Amino acid sequence: MGALDDRVAVITGAGRGLGREHALLFAAEGAKVVVNDLGGAPDGSGSDATPAQQVVNEIRAAGGVAVASPDDITTAGGANALIQQAIDEFGALHVLVNNAGILRDRMIVNMTDGEWDDVIRVHLRGHFMPLRAAAQYWRAQAKAGNAALRPSVINTSSTSGLFNNPGQVNYGSAKSGIATMTIIAQRELDRYGVKVNAICPAARTRLTLATPGISDAILHAPDEGFDVMDPANVSPFVAYLATADCPIKGRVFFVAGGDISLFQPFAIIDSISKDGKWTVEELATEAARLADVPFDLGQPRL
Ligand SMILES: NC(=O)c1ccc[n+]([C@@H]2O[C@H](COP(=O)([O-])OP(=O)(O)OC[C@H]3O[C@@H](n4cnc5c(N)ncnc54)[C@H](O)[C@@H]3O)[C@@H](O)[C@H]2O)c1
Question: How far apart are CA 117 and CA 168, in angstroms?
């Protein structure tokens, strides 16, 4: 018995890194997996169907069930085809893991239009397009009285957004948007029985290896003992969120090594107020103290 027996899962960006580990574990836990990957370079350029097919070959060699998808999930056509492929191949869709991503880091003053647009497109649009296609299918199933699917969506955000990394204004903005998308999607799709959560992972992949100033734990696997930054450490929690019985919904988590931490969404921590409209002069006296209200960012240990 696997934790994901009888579940059909689409995983985007599953040809490498974290997505590949999710796909291998999902299949080992009994899911039928559509392994999607455009196969581009870390900056999003180019395409290659080989990485997705290699993961499918690995899954099949281990006795699992998987098919490859080379679709670009940032286009409506690609995302719709991906969701339809799961339904055509396996008869249903239960789980969508939005994971595909690229990086094009630059300080704001030097960032090109293309560096901004490409990162926003792959992450924000690349999450929205498959989410919309899956949500339309799940709404139709709910309206037809099919309550058995118990759908799950797991999105991929990042501490680069939620903890505001300089040099990544495109990526961080997109990743914060994905955290908000997750909570809004839960509020909209709850009526169809869909559970939507997001993870902020930390792991050794080609994206983190190329990031300047990255920690030694990411750069080098230890010779012995627990490899905290092994991307495979992140996948069990993603698989748990994908199980039909998981009670968690509308939440955002940091996941790395053996740590799973729950984020609080944006919250008001202090206010000034009056019964009427402020003048600028009044605000200069009353509001200035908000500059000194401390934030407890609750940084994860790494
Ligand atoms: N590695 C980390 O520590 C870390 C931290 C925070 C967030 N993330 C996020 O985790 C996700 C996975 O990243 P990773 O570190 O495994 O990187 P990775 O480069 O190893 O894997 C990302 C995969 O996404 C694919 N992809 C890119 N654009 C695509 C598109 N348009 N359509 C289909 N596939 C596409 C790439 O070909 C690649 O195989 C990303 O969303 C990334 O931003 C990773």
Answer: 13
